Amino acid sequence: MKTNILFLWATPRSTSTAFEWMMRQRGDFVCYHEPFNELYYYGEDRRSERDAGVAAKPGHTYAAVWGEILKRAETEKVFIKDFAYSVQHMMDDAFLEACDHSFLVRDPKRVIPALHHHWPDFTQEEVGFDSLAALFDRLTVRDGAPPPVIESNDLLSDPNGTTEAYCRAVGIPFIEDALSWEAGERKEVSWYGEGTGPWHDNLRESTGIKPQKSKYPPIEENADLMNIYQTCAPHYEALCAQKLSVAKGV
């Protein structure tokens, strides 16, 4: 790591919270769960009216949260899992340069049905692939090389190998013990506006990063979802082409 702030940028329903939970088990990072996505829906300067009836906490703004994160990073290492669409309006050069960046992607054929199950009225922006790809491309041009990318199927099928490759790529120690934990409540990944709800049922029951049991109707059965998939697939394929090689650990 070049800075004290490490971002994992992902899309919803991409197994990113399970990865975040592993990072919490390490004990060497202060972890933030989607701080900007919470602001996107529930902050004083929210960007979405999805839950407009939920009152914002006084002072809960993008500037205040970013200021808090920067302050923590003066003395501690910070890990943040979030979605690029939540914060793309404030991603100036200073914001990007204050952090290290990494990416987790999942096949949109898995992401879209899972998101539709929870939010049948989700928007194209909320799927997250457009903003994720734009950020990835911007960082690649800036740095002359792509930032680290891991793929959800790799993570689920080989959590040790994928996590080890990730740690090597971002410059942090690999801690194998962090890949297992006890089942239980996960209040650390709840938002004040909605609680954990059904979003993290799998995580509450989990004891490690493992293949998931959730099943949804095939995306091919829904023409609207297939249209959205067609816009997301090229972004997924482009990011996947740059994913870390788990076998080689590079």
Question: How do you describe this structure in short?
Answer:
This protein is an alpha/beta fold and 250 residues long.
Which strands sit side by side, in order, in the main sheet? 2-3-1-4-5
- State the CATH class: Alpha Beta
Structural class: alpha/beta
- The CATH topology, please? Rossmann fold
**Number of extended strands:** 5
Low-confidence stretches: none
User: Helical element count?
Assistant: 11
Please provide the ordered H/E string of secondary-structure elements.
Answer: EHEHHEHEHHHEHHHH
- The whole-number mean of residue pLDDT values reads 91
Q: What is the terminal separation in angstroms?
A: 16 Å
CATH architect. name? 3-Layer(aba) Sandwich
Detail the topology: elements first, then pairings.
Elements: E1 5-10, H1 16-26, E2 30-33, H2 35-42, H3 62-73, E3 78-83, H4 93-97, E4 100-105, H5 108-118, H6 124-127, H7 129-143, E5 149-151, H8 152-157, H9 159-170, H10 201-205, H11 223-240
Helix pairs in contact: 5-11, 7-11
What features would you describe in this structure?
The chain has eleven helices and five strands. With 250 residues, it is an alpha/beta fold. The chain has one domain (5-240): Rossmann fold. The model has no long low-confidence stretch (mean pLDDT 91).
